[in-house]
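Write out the bound-state structure for magnesium ion.
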Amino acid sequence: MQKTLIRKVHPEKPERRLISEAAQIIRRGGLVAFPTETVYGLGADALNEEAVRRVFEAKERPLSDPLIVHVPNLAMISYVAAYVPDAVYRLARRFWPGPLTVVLPRLHLLSPLVTGGADTVAIRIPAHPVALALLRAADRPLVAPSANLFGHTSPTTAEHVRADLDGRIDMILDAGPTPLGVESTVLDLTRQPPVVLRPGGITPEALQEVLGPVLIRDHTPPEGPLRSPGLLERHYAPHKPLELIIGPPESVRAHLREQMRSSPFRLGLLIAEEDLAHLADPGPHLLEVVGSLKDLAGVARNLYAALRRLDQSPAERLLARDFGGHGLGLAIRDRLRRAADRVLELG
Ligand code: TXA
Ligand code: MG
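---
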């Protein structure tokens, strides 16, 4: 067990001394968790294979799951990608720095460990001042998967990182909660039309304004009701069974009310502000309000912390409402689907 340094850093004007301390650790092959505008990332030198290997070990992540490479500018993309298609420049003008990750053909010099053996590499320029300062000081591309144990909820605070990775990594730069709260949109530019592999901070609607048609990889729902119960123990996050409920507001609320009335279990409900008036008198059940249906940015920002709270609460089973399939709602639905062991679609 190693000692993990935790350093408070100013989110807008990061202290130069702290950034150079962190950059030194990276250059020596160490691991530094740092804030991005989406979630905290676990940073390591993308060009140092041993450092990259340590990232997988610290997270207990399977080697087949590829990492995102973070760069401070367009020029550095050529350290890891074979070439930069014109679409990247057009996307960069509008979305970078920001929560968009593009998948490009990889440079063959790049360690296959970074890409999970694939011949493509995922790259982004993050928008957080601390992330950019660290990337510039380290002066190299950094791999940075979300700074959580594999399968856990992504961390939106330094405390979330500490809870998962304390004693496994060298340093955590604590700049407070991350502003966006869900991970970047992953867009595969090696296919035509481009394909959204993971919905995120940049909506498909916005991408289409720049690129024309893009496909959204349709999500095959998790095994859901058919999932073998034996698999549940291995299903890390959240530790409790979670059901996602999709449907018109009235049907969703009726289902929630019925569950609250009849369930022999203590329930934890992840709901919208607008639901509260319809769910008066929760009895033994716990209500976690993540935000308004009219403010999906607020919902995204609170989502992971709310899931962690419900997981640590006395609730035995969790129910989450859906937030719609448009804009950020798509990213929120995607994350809740992955967290859920059941998805209920009401007519
Ligand atoms: O917002 C984010 O993207 C955060 C912050 C820290 O930047 N990072 C993040 O990394 O979410 P991670 O490792 O938790 O998720 C990376 C995602 C995975 O879904 C992975 O499968 C996909 O990107 N990915 C990475 N390389 C890929 C590739 N070459 N082809 C397709 N998908 C790839
Ligand atoms: Mg992750």
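---
The CA atoms of residues 93 and 338 lie 31 Å apart.
The longest strand covers residues 40-45.
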